[in-house]
Design brief:
There is one protein chain. The protein has 503 residues and is an alpha/beta fold. The protein folds into three domains: 5-226, Rossmann fold; 246-282 and 387-448, FAD/NAD(P)-binding domain (3-Layer(bba) Sandwich), CATH 3.50.50; 288-384 and 458-502, no CATH class. The chain is 24% helix and 28% strand. It contains 13 helices and 28 strands. The strands form six sheets. Strands 6-7-5-4-8-9-11-10 form an eight-stranded mixed β-sheet, sandwiched between helices. Strand 10 and strand 11 form a beta hairpin. The longest helix has 20 residues, at 301-320. The protein is globular.
């Protein structure tokens, strides 16, 4: 169910759950003065390749929008802005837009956020803006649990939430200790409250805390710097954030191309090698493929991961491909075993329904199924032409695509990897090596005495053919369940149908 809220006479949203306003009467001015300037932004990120911000309460996204706007306006901005925010009770999408109307300068950004602000089930959601150069990782659920589960290392912290009196859990020692695990020495923190309990708890967690003049009518705010008297130790050390350098990717399929594009957006110089004459020369070369979320009654980890993949597919396809030609987000109908719709409890309403729901009689009829058939409708799903998608990924700045480059073996030098052909001649070298060549990876790893990867080839079948202009009985959307059918897919000779399955 949508989060319950009301609106104060001045237009500020008010939480009926916590009996507190979502932000101060200063609104945008507070976001800029308390949080951005309190963390030394935008000056602090000058010259950085990427900047990571952790926020403890997303609310209506005002702090995120203000930070995004500052990043946009700054010629010295980092290549990548990664904003991580926690929220236990996401507000309705329409309310988010209504609140942004008070700040016309942010409204274009708010509309972009609104377009992706859907399906926010418990878990982690990655929203993608500015061609992937602005990332919003929105974590829905209990803040303390989420902080303990993740492995971020952040440069700034926006400590925000309802007042300590209304929502003490977000300010507790346990929560702030979990937050401190994600800070490097020197990470700056800002918050609007100066409660003595918060100051003492932050100091206990390793922060040097200062009380600074606030934005009138508020007298004071807090700023802090993570500088513990001890060497920070955790049970799980976050991976080191290496400076962007060179990366060598072996394989120009979906895995290799998406990894290459992600690294290139972060400033890496990427060389992609493949033995084929064109990208997607292997299994990724299917003329059409479906993307749809996996269903599980208990909404397990695999189901959540599949939704993350679908969201990423939607975001990048919209940015890179031509809808109706290269891809279609028209939805997918999934045939299910009788009496097993697969939907978790409570998905008939709320964010779950944004993803999947029981198929209605109209869609069953369009797919040629009887009205009592067991089926689900995936609204955020569709088909894509993988070779087109992969080709567009490899065209991104920072990627050098090298076809007809068969790698016979790998060699490790003093500070880089080398890919060699069958005559021992170097094809390319880089500090980082990424293997995305499917079963061929193990043949390359064996001479290095590396443990084999748990790879298992899966055989698949696909048939396709031209579709008559007046074809009867083919649904207007893709269908899966024991196999898959996508009709009305544009091809060089006209529309075509595609049917496939794995075994």
């Amino acid at each position: 169910m949508p989060e319950s809220l009301s609106w104060l006479p001045d237009g500020t949203p008010f939480s009926t759950r916590f009996n507190d306003r979502y932000h101060g009467e200063q609104g945008l001015a507070q976001a800029r003065d308390v949080f951005l300037h309190g963390c030394g932004l935008p000056q602090a990120w000058a010259g950085a390749q990427q900047w990571r911000i952790l926020e403890t309460g997303f609310g209506f996204g005002l702090n995120f929008l203000a930070t995004w706007a500052a990043w946009r306006a700054d010629p010295g901005r980092p290549r990548l802005l990664h904003f991580v925010s926690l929220e236990a009770w996401p507000v309705p999408a329409d309310a988010l837009l209504r609140a942004a109307e008070r700040h016309p300068e942010l409204l274009p950004l708010a509309r972009e956020l609104h377009a992706q602000y859907w399906g926010l089930l418990p878990g982690v959601h990655r929203l993608w803006f500015e061609g992937g150069r602005v990332l919003l990782t929105l974590c829905v659920g209990d803040a303390q649990a989420l902080l303990r589960q993740q492995l971020w290392e952040v440069d700034s912290v926006y400590l925000d939430g309802f007042s300590p009196q209304c929502n003490p859990d977000i300010w507790s020692l346990e929560t702030l200790k979990a937050m401190a695990r994600h800070c490097r020495r020197g990470t700056r923190l800002a918050t609007w409250t100066v409660a003595r309990s918060v100051r003492d708890t932050l100091a206990q967690c390793g922060f040097a805390v200062d009380k600074v003049p606030g934005l009138p009518p508020k007298r004071d705010n807090l700023q802090a710097r993570f500088d513990p008297h001890w060497q920070p130790r955790t049970s799980r050390q976050a991976p080191a954030f290496a400076r962007p350098a060179r990366c060598l990717v072996l394989g120009a399929g979906l895995a290799g191309a998406t990894a290459a594009a992600s690294l290139a957006r972060r400033g890496w110089q990427v060389t992609v090698l493949d033995a084929g004459d064109a990208p997607a020369a292997g299994a990724s070369g299917l003329p059409a493929g479906l993307f749809a979320p996996h269903l599980s009654p208990d909404d397990n980890l695999f189901a959540r991961l599949s939704r993350a993949g679908v969201r990423a597919m939607l975001q990048q396809s919209q940015a890179l491909l031509q809808e109706g030609i290269d891809w279609s987000p028209a939805g997918v109908l999934e045939r299910r075993p009788a009496g097993q719709p697969g939907l978790p409890a409570g998905w008939h309403d709320g964010p779950g329904a944004d993803w999947s729901r029981t198929a209605d009689a109209g869609r069953l009829a369009a797919a040629g199924l009887p009205p009592d058939a067991s089926a689900c409708w995936h609204a955020r799903a569709g088909w894509v032409r993988p070779p087109r998608f992969i080709a567009r990924l490899l065209e991104q700045p920072g990627i050098a695509w090298r076809p007809r480059s068969a790698v016979a073996r790998l060699a490790r030098g003093a500070d880089c990897w080398q890919a060699l052909d069958d005559a021992g001649n170097p094809l390319a070298e880089a500090e980082l090596l990424l293997l995305a060549a499917g079963p061929a990876c193990n043949a390359l790893l064996a001479p290095l005495q590396a443990p084999p990867l748990p790879l298992q080839p899966v055989r698949g079948l696909m048939s396709w053919g031209p579709q008559p202009a007046q074809a009867q009985g083919l649904p207007p959307f893709a269908v899966n369940g024991g196999g898959a059918l996508a009709a009305h897919v544009p091809c060089d000779g006209g529309p075509a149908w595609h049917m496939g399955a794995c075994r």
